[in-house]
């Protein structure tokens, strides 16, 4: 699907029935700071990206290959943990000290950058370099487009949100993976009776909790429920499906569906994945990047066939299509508007020759990821992770609707209020009605 041209980008148009992906992004150990657009070596472009293996290794390799091929136009890379990066980049943009290449997830955050004049319009450059656009999934451009113009190039990989489970623990209690929300609630006391947490959750990171609501809103009321919020409709959060979804997630919390102390666990430490592969938790709702983390850090958990995965199950009586999924259609790179002409030239060369190359495609596949590059089916089927990659490709390509993550679709202001209220909801410190009231107050802001 080509990007929409009206002044208001349609949330649902980000991807419908096309092979695009989702990402809340990986997280891990942060690297050194510094490296703003105008700082460091004035002849170098600068690039901040997320840490955590195996994704960090792929990103570093892409930069290293580019630097080796371009000795007179280098890129200086700096890594940050997920949450630290989100704070750092906003501060740096506001202070006029951002990196040349601005990593992000598109949507409402990108729109705020555009409105502040902080990133360049890439449309003329893409028109002059059609091969850059031609090799990427068409529908991945939606979240990088504002008012019909491309301000962020889609990069990296397809990442739907997935329900993972530990097969051995299911065998231990003699149960099957959940095929409905009712099944999920039925499994909770069975696992708790055996001293096993039903679900792992790094609740302190907040966006990890959000994935539950994204699916429940969709499965109960269909994608139209959040679409109304995205469109800025008055009191859109008051939809009965919204109250139902918020109530159901609190029912799960009250039933002790999540690991004890989940609100003090952070995703940046990968502790939530560890709970799954060490057998302390039976299931985990998380991004598809978790497969690579589980394979890297989980010992024989993945090679032994102990890892199971599936799409989020339907809710009885719900309106949402079970093929629908959520997440971000890709990761994105913009060019900082205050970078020097020389830095911008290096950045554009990196976007056209340093990313989505054959070497990078193979690197992403080796981590258990599906790149956003067209024509990779034969490479996917030949991979040691072919079954997993086929699953991910199928989820993304067959989804009737692929909704962008809420905290990226909304403005930074509304997203921060959302994440705070989601945290309070999971901690049972506010009711569903209070959540709705708080969120209705920031619609359109």
UniProtKB/TrEMBL annotation:
Protein keywords: Signal
Highest taxon, organism lineage: Bacteria
PROSITE patterns, per database record: PROKAR_LIPOPROTEIN, TAT
UniProt keyword annotation of Ligase present: no
Leader sequence segment: 1-25
Transmembrane segments: none
Record carries keyword Phosphoprotein: no
Protein name: Extracellular solute-binding protein
Biological source species: Sphaerisporangium aureirubrum
